[in-house]
Amino acid sequence: MSELPEDYEDLRDELYDHLYRKLERKDANAERFAAQGTAKEVLHSYVLRHLFSALTSPDRPKRPPPFTINQAHFSELINEHELHDFLAVLIFASCNIDAVWTFVQKLVQPNKEENTLLPVRLPVEKEYLQRVFGSGNPTVNKFYDAQACFATLVIKKGEKNVLKKPHLHRLPWLEEKMLGEGNFGTVRMVRIAKGHFLGWNGPQPAEIARKDYELNKDAEENFENEANMMARILQRSKHNNILASLGTLKIESNPPFSACSCHELRRTCNNT
């Protein structure tokens, strides 16, 4: 990383660029996402210390609050409280220095055991943001609208995953390719970003077959029945030509809602 700016606003804009370049599917506004570890990779110890220096610079026309921590302690506490993603959203939403000062005062420097605002995991509701930044503060809406990019869904292999608030998350699909159509929906090959498919132990992103369903109220039962039936069949079967079921994901919204089932994608075929 090149020499960093000393001014907070210039530093924020440069860190925005570093974060943006690390995003997956960055050219698709509604689909871009940060994979696990992205914020921590960009906001490493040197950057955090430099950021704190910019936050407490005596050259600013408005003096900073009387913090009780220094550069090194700031970096240590960000790591201890796992606040990289939260800080990344503040930067990505181009929040002003007052918002970051409040972040330090409310989330970073207080004792962890005494701080009712910790731990914090994205996404967060507006009520939580109002407790941090104050009701009516523009940071509340700016943060709320920007956080989905850093709240990428983690899918658990072999389970019935449910996403209740899709507007607050991004899906971890690196790539999608149509394979065909089946009952109630389509089948696609998808690559899932590393760290976002728990139980997948391969060194590369998971590559699976995903069957998508566009569901209405009547069709939901069909999806549940098919998913349960596939699970029972595959649990009993050891045949090499039957794929392994890897779980389901139901995405809820004010109608319609959708769901998908995930299956192991076999690339080998028998020569006959």
TrEMBL record:
Keywords: ATP-binding, Nucleotide-binding. PROSITE patterns: PROTEIN_KINASE_ATP, PROTEIN_KINASE_DOM. Residues 173-272 form the Protein kinase domain. Transmembrane segments: none annotated. InterPro entries: Kinase-like_dom_sf, Prot_kinase_dom, Protein_kinase_ATP_BS. ATP binds at residue 211. One of its GO terms (molecular function) is ATP binding. SUPFAM superfamilies: Protein kinase-like (PK-like). It comes from the Eukaryota. This is Protein kinase domain-containing protein.
